[in-house]
Specification:
Blueprint lengths: L7 H8 L3 E5 L3 E6 L3 E7 L2 E4 L5 E4 L1 H4 L9 E4 L2 E2 L2 E2 L2 H15 L10 E6 L5 H13 L4 E6 H8 L10 E6 L4 E7 L2 E8 L3 H16 L1 E2 L2 H11 L10 E8 L5 E7 H24 L3 H10 L1 E4 L8 H9 L3 E3 L6 H11 L11
Helix pairs in contact: 3-4, 5-11, 6-7, 6-8, 8-10
Length: 347
């Protein structure tokens, strides 16, 4: 017999557009069940100075970074994986959710699963949840980013065997040992892609008296950044402002110099991997000898990083199939199978 009245919860699921979100320092990625990834934009907002009037969000706003007049402020509301500006984060989330729904408002408010750093404080986590609710969420679930990344990378997190994930994002590096849908050991440091960019800015400033912007540093990292100097060095022309004369100037930077600039940052990541291995129970350590380490996150794409970690740990290291999207894909799988993963999410 057909039910005459559909329960409110089933009705809400039918007409709402639930979303999984990787609210990253560098990029925000949105996943909708049944549609997959529907949005991948920089976590940047441009507003009128002295107001919260949003002028641009995402890619359009990122193009304005460092190039705005005094009447416009382009900034990133996320820092080190957490919300630095509540109002801007709320406006950004609302805009992205609307975009994910093809600029149409849903009949029911959506449920959201959001990835958060494992080292997040209760206050920072509450800020994420409140921001999501203010942006229109009906229910908000948070999941630790290394757990979401492991699920998204296809690791057997539900099995009684050890899996190790190293997720290098824009603001944080997360290292976790996972078994039976739970984290055995996890360590988070606020070192990631942004720290690498800043290291390049400081190096060029110190060596050449040249001031460059964060976007230029990011391009240097992506084009000639490396952690292992092998073969013929790559070169790149870099433009900035001479700190002595105050006029524009161009220099030629090599991959050897970028490697030197990144040494301290990479050492921090290697150290946190070592700490995680030292705190892994013996039985799970034996699993890692065969299974090795999985790398995820945009920072894992830095040339030679996988080989360096393998050399320093003696374990096989594998780069995830799509490292930039592991967290949101994992959060999406959790959203689609919320009952199964209920014990892996926080409410």
């Amino acid at each position: 017999m057909i039910e005459r009245f559909m329960p409110a919860r089933r009705l809400a699921r039918l007409f709402s557009s639930d979303v999984a979100i990787d609210l990253g320092t560098a990029n925000t990625v949105v996943y909708v069940p049944g549609r997959g990834i529907v949005l991948n934009e920089p976590s940047v907002v441009a507003v009128r100075s002295g107001s919260t009037h949003v002028l641009a969000v995402g890619r359009e706003a990122k193009e304005m970074l460092g190039k705005t007049p005094e009447s416009i402020v382009a900034s990133r509301p996320m820092r080190d994986g957490v919300i630095a500006n509540f109002e801007l984060a709320q406006s950004m989330l609302r805009y992205f959710i609307l975009r994910a729904n093809n600029d149409r408002k849903s009949l029911f408010r959506p449920r959201m699963v959001i990835g958060v750093p494992s080292g997040i404080t209760q206050v920072e986590c509450r800020a994420v949840e409140d921001s999501a609710r203010e942006a229109g969420a009906r229910e908000v679930f948070t999941i630790m980013e290394p757990m979401a990344a492991a699920i998204g990378a296809g690791l057997p997190v539900h099995e009684p065997t050890g899996s190790m994930i190293v997720d290098i994002g824009g603001g944080t590096t997360e290292v976790a040992i996972i078994t039976l849908k739970d984290v055995v050991f996890c360590r988070s440091i606020r070192v990631g892609g942004d720290e690498m960019d800043q290291a390049i800015v400081n190096y060029v400033k110190r060596k050449y008296n040249l001031l460059i912007g964060d976007r230029t540093a990011e391009q240097i990292k992506m084009n000639i950044g490396t952690v292992l100097v092998e073969g013929e060095p790559q070169v790149m022309e870099v433009k900035g402002r001479d700190l002595v004369t105050g006029v524009p100037k161009m220099i030629t930077l090599t991959s050897v110099e970028v490697n030197e600039a990144l040494l301290e940052t990479i050492a921090s990541i290697i150290e946190v991997v070592r700490v995680a291995l030292e705190n892994t129970p013996p039985e799970l350590s034996s699993d890692l000898v065969d299974r090795g380490i999985m790398l995820a996150g945009g920072g894992s794409l830095l040339r030679g990083l996988d080989h360096l970690i393998a050399r320093e740990t003696g374990l096989p290291v594998q780069l995830a199939e799509d490292p930039l999207l592991c967290v949101v894909n994992g959060a999406g799988k959790v959203l689609e199978n919320l009952d199964f993963f209920r014990d892996t999410v926080l409410r």
